[in-house]
Amino acid sequence: MNIKKIEKGDFLQFFKLLEEANDTQFDIHHRQRLLGAFEKCTYSVFGYFDKDELIALIVTLDSFSTTQAKRTLYVEEFYVVPSERGRGVGKTLFDWVIEYAKVEKYCRIEWRTSRDNADAQKFYSKYSADTEWKYYVLNID
Q: What is the pLDDT of residues 57-105, one digit of tens each?
C-alpha cells in the first residue's frame, strides 16, 4: 500500500481514473482546466497506489466553517476501481484522509453522495457521520 498526495507526474493516471469514475471522457480543454486548477492548489488529490498503479483516489477542497472559525475539508470525489472494492482499499484511503485532516487541524470533513448510491451510503454509514444537513446544488454552468 502506498498512499500519497498526487503530483503532476501522476496526472495521466488521475485523468484515467477520474474519467472512469464519471463514466466519461474529458476533452483536452477539460483536462487543461483540471491541471490549471491543480497547479493553483484549488484542490488536492490523494491516491492509493498498488505498486505504481493508481487504484483509488480522493479529491478534496479546502473550505471554512464560520461557526467554528476553522478550516473544513470537503471530499469532492472518492473512487475505487471496481476490481479493488471490498478489499479494504476504500476504507484504508478514507481513514488516511481522516488522519490527514486531524494532523492538518481541519475541524470536520464533509461529503455528499447520490441518493441512489446505496453502496456509498452503506460505506459512509460506518463512519457515524452527521446526516442531519440537507445538501443543495444549483447548476449555473
A: 999 999 999 999 999 999 999 999 999 999 999 999 999 999 999 999 9
Closest among 39, 53, 64 to 10, alpha carbons compared = 53
- Between strands 70-80 and 108-111, the pairing is parallel
Residue 42 lies in a domain: yes
In this predicted model, what pLDDT tens digit does every residue of 111-120 receive, in sequence order? 988 889 888 8
CATH number at residue 96: 3.40.630.30
Predicted structure pTM score:
0.88
Domain boundaries, position 60: 2-125
Q: Cell match 483536462: residue?
A: 31
Please state, in angstroms and rounded to a whole number, the distance separating the CA atoms of residues 82 and 112. 20
Q: Which amino acid does the sequence have at 80?
A: V
